[in-house]
Every structure is written in C-alpha cells, then in structure tokens.
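1st attempt posting a full record on here, be nice pls
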Amino acid sequence: MELLALEQIAKKEKIDIVSCKMRKTKARVIEYDNTCIFMDYSQIHTYTEEKCLLAEELGHYYYSAYYTLNSDKEFIDKQEYKALKWKSLACVPLNSILSCFYKRHM
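the predicted structure (as tokens):
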C-alpha cells in the first residue's frame, strides 16, 4: 500500500496526522477525545520510512494496541507486535508473500 492510500485511510477514520517534533520517537499515535498520529518529519528521511511509520501507527489504531508510559515491557511488546503485524499486512502485497511461500515450498 502506498503512502497516499495510508493517508486516505487516516482521513476516512478521522485521524489527524500532525507534524510535531519529538525527542525519543519519530511517530506516535494518541487516542483521547479523537485519535491523532504525530509524525516528527525532521527525523523521517525517506518515503519508505514515512510509509512504514504511518502504517505502524495505524496498526496501533486498528488493533487498539495502545499502552501508557507506565505499562510493563511485556505488555508494550505485545502491543508493538500487533501494530507491526498490521503494518506488514498493509505494506507487503499479498502476491509477494505468496510468491515467497511458493518459491520456498517448490
């Protein structure tokens, strides 16, 4: 999926994408009254990086994979895994996955 398609998904879901400087991360999704994805474009240097970060944050949204600063590491790891799973499903075309599978099993 391309960046524009991911941005359209965010728009459809009424998720604002906001440019914001951050110290410890390049992107973050926050759900309060509404959902916002904050992107630190000063730290994002390629189209692919931007696309992957946005997809991962959308993954947090779609799987409700949120956590707080006080969450324990095991819980954070589980939530990150869910978001990365959504990112992979959104960014890697199914035919590429199937092609790799068939090459390995033939």
